[in-house]
Design a protein that fits this description.
Distance between the termini: 57 Å
Strand order of the largest sheet: 9-8-7-12-19-18
Number of strands: 20
Low-confidence stretches: none
Radius of gyration: 20 Å
Largest sheet: 6 strands, mixed
Length: 306
């Protein structure tokens, strides 16, 4: 309820199943993770049977156990679908929140209508998809949620705008004001943020790559909104040799600047997949969904063993 006359109610039910597997042998210990989640009740377990979730986590742990340290260098990178989208959540999404844009603390401030990404990239943040991990009827300021196209065919079309951001910038609110609970003031935050489907078959992304990295799944990382600089750990990775997925590798880090990296995306597949996560910022820890199809970045810095 607020002084502008809004009085809304929303019921939010979320369920998540997390499997964390540890695999050990004489060479050491590695882990694997799988954690599906949706805005629904225990029917989640019918969509994601626990045994299958456990097997997926175990497979990642075993792959990492037999993996070799990744060689460092600059190379083409095929990024996996689903949680591969975390790199653009962090290195691009946070730069498009008016939390940073209105303070001139984002590398993408003042660039509406300009080309900021590869023409094959359309980037959307929405809160309306059924059972989306970050979906809701209203945001935490009583605004109806919507689907907001942030970048269309490489051109910056909108920011994510809360009430404060609208007052500071004059931009239309997008129903993006979110907070963990009543102890936090709402700020503009992501909901379900995805790179939309492209038209390149997945197998075509690997063709022509003599030497590169397949970052099948990513883990945590860091980003500086003012510059867009990021680093992210690859939790499941494989070398690409002569257009084929080759041996598993571990210890890879992806390094770069978000605005530069999205300009280097040369192809996007059609196998969109979403994954749940938790995002921490000034208004607390929030459920967000991230996703993308497989995509090819022409060149990224891969940190590893020299």
């Amino acid at each position: 309820a607020n002084s502008e006359g809004a009085y809304v109610e929303d019921r939010r039910v979320r369920t998540r199943l997390v499997a964390q597997v540890v695999a050990s042998d004489a060479s050491g210990t590695q882990t694997g993770h799988s954690g599906p989640g949706k805005s629904m009740g225990l029917e989640l377990l019918e969509l994601f049977p626990p045994a299958e979730v456990g097997r997926r986590a175990a497979q990642v742990a075993l792959n990492n156990l037999r993996a070799r340290p990744v060689p460092a260098g600059t190379m083409p990178v095929v990024m996996g679908n689903g949680f591969g989208g975390v790199i653009f959540h962090e290195a691009l999404g946070h730069l498009l929140e008016t939390t940073s844009v209105a303070r001139n603390a984002s590398a993408l401030t003042g660039l509406l209508g300009q080309e900021v990404a590869s023409p094959v990239v359309t980037y959307v943040d929405e809160g309306i998809s059924p059972h989306g991990w970050g979906s809701s009827r209203f945001d935490d300021e009583g605004m109806p949620t919507e689907s907001t196209v942030l970048i269309r065919n490489g051109v910056l079309e909108s920011y994510m705008v809360d009430r404060w951001g609208a007052l500071k910038t004059g931009f239309r609110p997008t129903g993006s004001g979110r907070r963990q609970d009543y102890t936090f003031a709402p700020t503009s935050r992501m909901r379900n943020t995805i790179v939309e489907r492209g038209d390149t078959p997945r197998e075509k992304l690997f063709e022509g790559i003599d030497y590169g990295l397949y970052a099948s799944s990513l883990g945590g990382g860091q980003v500086k909104p003012g510059s867009g600089e990021y680093n992210f750990a690859v939790t499941e990775g494989y070398m690409i040799r002569n257009g084929e997925i080759a041996e598993p590798v571990r210890g890879a880090m992806l390094l770069g600047k978000g605005p530069e990296s999205i300009r280097r995306i040369v192809a996007v597949s059609d196998d969109l997949s979403n994954e749940p996560g938790m995002c921490g910022s000034v208004s607390g820890s929030l459920p967000v969904e991230i996703g993308q199809p497989h995509l090819l970045v022409s060149e990224l810095v891969v940190g590893g063993e020299a």
